Amino acid sequence: MVFGVSSADISAFTHRPDALFNLPFFSHSISVQNLAIMIGTLIAVLFLGKFNFSWRIHHSARHYGLFALGGLLMGFGTRFANGCNVGALFTPIANFSLSGWIFLVFLLIGGVLGNRLQAAVLKQC
Q1: Which residues constitute the signal peptide according to the record (predicted)?
Q2: Rg (CA), the chain
Q3: Distance set, CA 6 to CA 22, 31, 79, 102 (Å)
Q4: What per-residue confidence (pLDDT) applies to 86?
Q5: Residue 121 is part of which domain span?
Q6: Closest alpha carbon to 117 in 105, 60, 106, 109
């Protein structure tokens, strides 16, 4: 909505009720769940002792470009699939559905290709 898209358009695209996008943050259960996941991850990393609040940049702009591209592709993939890996991989495999096994094959191929692409891009740094 910040970018000029109305809540009615968003609800039509996501097939969710329009009122869902007009709620305050803590009234929207999915937003609260996402925040809790991020806080839980931060706490887990802090317990590992591997996290520090250094402002020094450890990676090049190319690294951050790859991170952003990966996040965008994951978001688009989730949106196009109308769900996430739990709905596309684990649940169908547990139900002996062929779609889960097909998704697993393409997930593995995508992971291998993504790792090779990252290695090739970072090698050029």
Answers
A1: none
A2: 19
A3: 10, 19, 18, 36
A4: 67
A5: 57-125
A6: 109
